[in-house]
Write a structure and sequence with these properties.
mainly alpha, 2 domains
């Protein structure tokens, strides 16, 4: 049997009632709002017949499933946009940090290797780029070079800078290795 426009409108009103819907409540609403001129019980019987013939319960389940899928997709898209925003912010902060290391001796956002390491790890986790050994070595070289240039500006003697840079590089490498073990669940 083809669903009539009147039955379809009743189904839409039934859907709009939300999780607390019932045929009894819909019948009462229809009579109260003069959608139906007869008795509440008579209206409920019509609604029950339409509900069975036109499979209202199955259609409700389908709509709930479809709406849940839409909400999940919207949340995934929202999370992706937020993640991209955070990655961009981290890129800007780390760029500023590196630039400040190059150009000034004033306070910087990450005032030690541990803070820089946390920023770097967060950046690569958010960017879905795990810290491979080669990347870690590259980061150590970059940070070590920035530290060396900063120390050279202070007037410290070259051999002291060289010794500090070697120790700093070893420590920074160890920090990255320990952090990788923690992330893999192998250390901690």
């Amino acid at each position: 049997m083809k669903e009539t426009p009147v039955a379809l409108e009743a189904f839409e009103r039934y859907w709009a009632m939300g999780p607390q819907r019932s045929l009894q409540k819909l019948a009462e609403q229809d009579v109260t709002q003069s959608i139906h001129k007869g008795s509440i019980e008579g209206r409920r019987k019509y609604l029950a017949k339409w509900s069975i013939v036109h499979t209202w319960q199955a259609r409700l389940r389908q709509r709930v499933i479809k709406e849940a899928e839409i909400v999940r997709e919207q949340l995934r898209e929202r999370a992706l946009r937020f993640r991209q925003t955070v990655v961009t912010g981290l890129e800007v902060d780390v760029s500023r940090y590196i630039e400040r290391l190059r150009t000034t001796e004033t306070e910087v956002m990450a005032d030690d290797a541990a803070a820089l390491e946390k920023l770097t790890k967060l950046y690569f986790q958010l960017a879905d780029e795990p810290l491979t050994e080669k990347r870690v070595e590259h980061i150590v070289v970059l940070v070590g070079g920035a530290v060396r240039r900063a120390l050279e500006r202070t007037g410290i003697e070259a051999d002291v800078i060289e010794r500090f840079q070697t120790l700093f590089g070893e420590e920074l490498q160890q920090v990255f290795e320990e952090g990788g073990q923690e992330a893999d669940g192998n250390g901690g």
